[in-house]
């Protein structure tokens, strides 16, 4: 699944030169969000990560 189509890029926000990545559309789509979460889990499993913290 191409997750890039679920991410909106907001140029020059909050200041010029920054491209803010808005993932609210990703989180609004259950299948895409589940896929993204599963990908993070797989990445962490390979790295033997014990804990993931997020907002």
SS summary, helix count: 2
* H-E string: EEHH
What portion of residues belong to β-strands? 5-15%
Helicity range: 40-55%
What gross morphology would you assign? extended
- Biggest β-sheet, characterized? 2 strands, antiparallel
Average pLDDT, rounded to a whole number, is 93
The rounded distance between the terminal residues' Cα atoms is 24 Å
Unreliable stretches (pLDDT < 50, length at least 5) are none
> Which radius of gyration do the C-alpha atoms yield?
14 Å
**In order across it, which strands form the biggest sheet?**
1-2
Going by helix content, strand content and strand pairing, the class is alpha+beta
Total beta strands: 2
Mind explaining what this structure looks like?
The chain is α+β, with helices and mostly antiparallel strands and 55 residues long. The chain contains two helices and two strands. The protein has helices at residues 24-28, 30-47; strands at 8-11, 19-22. A two-stranded antiparallel sheet has the order 1-2.
């Amino acid at each position: 699944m191409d997750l890039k189509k679920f991410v909106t890029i907001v140029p020059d926000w909050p200041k010029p030169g920054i491209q803010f990545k808005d993932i609210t559309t990703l989180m609004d789509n259950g299948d895409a969000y589940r896929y993204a979460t599963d990908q993070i889990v797989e990445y962490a499993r390979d790295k033997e990560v014990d804990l993931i913290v997020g907002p």
